[in-house]
Amino acid sequence: MRKLALIALFLVQLSHSFAQSKNSPLQISHLTGDFYVYKTFHDYKGTLISANAMYLVTDKGVVLFDAPWDKTQFQPLLDSIKARHHKEVVMHFATHSHEDRAGGLDFYRKKGIKTYTIKATDQILEKNKEARAEFVIPDDTLFTVGKYTFEVYYPGKGHASDNIVVWFNKQKILYGGCFVKSVEAKDLGYLGDADVKEWQKSILKVQSKFKNPKYIVTGHDDLKDLTSLKHTLKLVKEYNAAKPSGK
Ligand SMILES: [Zn+2]
């Protein structure tokens, strides 16, 4: 009887801790070294869809790659980072103009954080009368922050006409954003601003330029499976075989 009670208690605790982490609107998890990924959620027609983003902790401050897809989490993200790492966010990159990536530019810019996009993203944001980054960077730019160096790279059109990826050559981390679909993805998702024909070429460029990634951070869903880029290429090829115009 006592054993049973203990098991029951254990199960209650387990489900409780699971429910807590599952329901949290901001879920931070450790990727490797000083790299962390975080998940936020967006209500899309009554269904909560998650989005992945990443931050890097350096001795010069924290670098944020994409913003929460949930406005209510812009400040909690800064607070959580501060509580966990005792550091401020100093830089923020938005990897294309969509809301799940660039939605925090205004908020973070006003906080005094240096915000960055490439020119193509800036032009789309300007056209849509949305908040823009403080700094517009060339399509292929190398940054060094503390002991970390990374390359912000525009591979060509794909999920969006302005999607960029970020490559950490020493750590072999590819931050793909929405350019890379998770292995769980059954299709290419939202294609309103996509160029699927070009996406194929753009993936090949990324594959030949950034070899043997140890981590690939996808825009949504699972990011542990390293075949995500190949999986994206397969989805793109299938799509193009069915619709040769790419639209
Ligand atoms: Zn997008």
Automatic annotation (TrEMBL):
Keywords: Antibiotic resistance, Hydrolase, Metal-binding, Periplasm, Signal, Zinc. The keyword Zinc applies. Its EC number is 3.5.2.6. It catalyses: a beta-lactam + H2O = a substituted beta-amino acid. Its main location: periplasm. It is found in: Periplasm. It holds the Pfam family Lactamase_B. SUPFAM superfamilies: Metallo-hydrolase/oxidoreductase (SSF56281). Residues 51-220 form the Metallo-beta-lactamase domain. The keyword Cytoplasm does not apply. Residues 1-19 form the signal peptide. It comes from the Bacteria. Its cofactor is Zn(2+). InterPro entries: BlaB//VIM/IMP-1 (IPR058199), Metallo-B-lactamas (IPR001279), NDM-1-like (IPR050855), RibonucZ/Hydroxyglut_hydro (IPR036866). This is beta-lactamase. The gene is bla-B1-FLAV.
